[in-house]
Amino acid sequence: MRKIAALFVPLIVGFGLSACSTIEDLTGSGDPETSVAERAPEIEKTPVVRIESLELGRLFRGYMLIANGVAPGTGYYLPELRIRYGGELGPDGFYEFDFVAAAPENPNQGSDAPVTARLLRGDFELSPLKLRSARGVRVWSSRDSVEGRF
């Protein structure tokens, strides 16, 4: 029995080490300081056409800013609320965001589609400390902006 175990231990260790090197090949250099998001290419995003609604929801520890907007066409993905001014308050005491989304391969597809087919939702979590000194939030699209006051 010991002979069989002695044969399988090096075999299992060998498979384990080969799997580790394969994982490093798939993920990059194996440097733990570099995340997958940092190695991924940056996707260019375009602003949505208009903001439909803006909500501020309460979380256990903080708030969630939720914006619904209309994309220029169908197939837009990865909606995001990008904060302006490096995360600092704007000159008028508002936190400002750009509502953007990644365009599909053919950005003109579905431009005449109904609004319900082009709706996107973007979220951003806000801490209570950030909101303490703010007067409100403002979300920008390519044509307009919507603001919510506290």
Shape: elongated
The largest sheet is: 5 strands, mixed
Low-pLDDT windows of residues: 19-27
What is the H/E order? HHEEEEEEHEE
As a percent range, the share of helical residues equals 10-25%
* Radius of gyration from CA coordinates: 23 Å
What does the average pLDDT come to? Answer: 81
**How many strands?**
8
Tally of individual helices: 3
N/C terminus separation: 73 Å
Please provide a written account of the structure.
With 150 residues, the chain is of the alpha+beta class. It has 2 domains: 2-39; 45-149, no CATH class. It is built from 3 helices and 8 strands; from the N terminus they run ααββββββαββ. The protein has helices at 2-27, 36-39, 128-132, and strands at residues 45-47, 50-59, 62-70, 77-83, 94-102, 119-126, 136-140, 145-149. Strands 1, 4, 5, 7 and 8 form a 5-stranded mixed sheet that branches. A hairpin with a 2-residue loop joins strand 2 and strand 3 (62-70). The longest helix has 26 residues, at 2-27. The protein starts with a helix and ends with a strand.
Furnish the topology, listing elements before pairings.
Elements: H1 2-27, H2 36-39, E1 45-47, E2 50-59, E3 62-70, E4 77-83, E5 94-102, E6 119-126, H3 128-132, E7 136-140, E8 145-149
Parallel strand pairs: 5-7
Antiparallel strand pairs: 1-5, 2-3, 3-6, 4-5, 7-8
